[in-house]
Amino acid sequence: EQGIIEVLPVSGQFDHAAPLRLTLAHPTRSEEDQSLVLQPDELGWGTQAKIDASHDWKIELGPKDGRWRLRGRLPKQQQATHLRPSVQAP
Question: Which of 4, 10, 49, 84 is the most exposed place for a label (fewest CB within 10 A)?
Fold first, then answer.
């Protein structure tokens, strides 16, 4: 809504000095997919960007080197979501 995307960690250990890559995938049209680099800030990571809130987005977040990733879905018209690993640690 304000053109700001923020990622705020709730749990886990992350390198707070390293940027993260956020991929927003359109559910059916790959030409609308977006990839953003989020820079570290005081509370987490962020960037300036506006996204189309008229449909759902599939979301993937991780470091630039791809060592790990969190996934989730941002339902249309919502401004927040919870991301989690695709698999649980043993």
Answer: 10
